[in-house]
Amino acid sequence: MKRILHILPQFQPGGGMDRVVMNYFSHIDKTKFQFNVLTHMLEDRTYADQLEQAGGTVCVFPSMSFHHIRSIARQFDVFLSKEHYDVVHCHMANAAFIYLRVAKKHGVPVRILHSHQDHYADTRSHALRNMPLIAAGKRFANRNVACSKAAGDFLFPHQEYQLLRNSIDTTSFKFSQSDRDAWRNAMGYTPQQTIFGIVGRLTAQKNQIFAVQVFQRIVAEHPSAQLVIAGDGDLNDELHHQIRSLNLDKHVCWLGNVSNISEVYMGLDALLFPSLYEGLPMTLVEAQAAGLTSYVSNTISDESFISEFVNVLPIDKGAAPWVKAVNDRFTKGSTRRGLGAQQVKDAGFDIADTTAELEMLYEKN
Fold first, then answer.
1. Is-contact 315 299, C-beta < 8 A?
2. 226-245 per-position pLDDT tens digit
3. Where are the alpha helices (DSSP H) in 11-83?
């Protein structure tokens, strides 16, 4: 059995990379491959418990910062001196200079650097910090992987890389009217109300401040509209303050990180997704499989626009184009939601099809 070590910034419901790993874990041949995780944040053990029940391990290291770099490198050196792994699969490009360097020192035969985004960071200062770190880390990888062409061309220009899509179990996200009714009843929403959603990490990259501005304009015209926020992150406090200052508290429900995200998609009527940039957003793939009307920024690679349910809009012209697009469909809804799962599968994003590609990657020496 090959032992795989995934390096992740966090390992819990709410993050896209976390869900990518767990989707593959759920479908990979567990008689041949054992998933293990090293992470820097573990506040919710939902994923960790599932992994450990299958014989894997989850190890938590200190938060990644300049102050901890040397201690993390020493700790990982000791870690690999005690544990044997056939593959180190690093999902943190700005930490590969630690993890893949030490993995090479200990003779780990397959060292994967996996690109999940097409920008260095949210801010210029963070980008300037990450650029030399990422350049250093790439030297120690002997397998380059990307979730999209945009993410691959960004991190591996003039280099070969393997495309491995952020795939899902499309059957789990196929629209179900009974699941929709059950979720909305549990949440106290009436069939007549239109429920918008923000799903994913609450961070500057995801641009949720803009999404709330759009929602404020929607509520002004449609007072019964509601917003559900599923996720957590650095932007949490700022978003709470914004929503209070706009007197939207009674229109907003905070779910935090949720493990039943497919049920949330069923109950929603529209997704607001104005990210500044993405590699290939797992949230958008899942939402399309659920046949959920999605309002998406034009800064995202069109590789993730794989169904009829995406509406692409600019984010540099303010909220007005978004509000107009929403109003154009506000009372129409969609009677075609059940088609989303097949459209996503036909586009090549079904986990059953891509797991075989990952297994072949792990088996190469």
1. yes
2. 999 999 999 999 999 999 99
3. 16-27, 46-53, 69-82
Residue-wise pLDDT tens digits, 49-82 = 999 999 999 999 998 877 788 999 999 999 999 9
Structure tokens that stand for 171 in this block: 């059957």
Of 169, 164, 166, nearest to 361 (Cα)?
164
Tell whether 162 and 180 lie within a shared domain. no
Amino acid at site 271: L
Q: Kindly state whether residues 28 and 148 are assigned to the same domain.
A: yes
Half-sphere exposure of 2 (CA within 13 A, CB side): 22
Report the alpha-carbon distance of residue 195 to residue 61 in Å, rounded.
Answer: 39
Two tokens, residue 73: 């490198």
The residue with tokens 């995780």 is: 37
CB 307 within 8 A of CB 276: no
CATH number at residue 49: 3.40.50.2000
* pTM assigned to the model: 0.86
Closest CA relative to residue 142, chosen from 169, 104, 115, 174: 104
Contact between 213 and 219 under an 8 Å Cβ cutoff? The reply is: no
- Residue 268 neighbours by CB distance under 10 Å: 28
Pairwise CA distance, residues 261 & 268, whole Å = 11
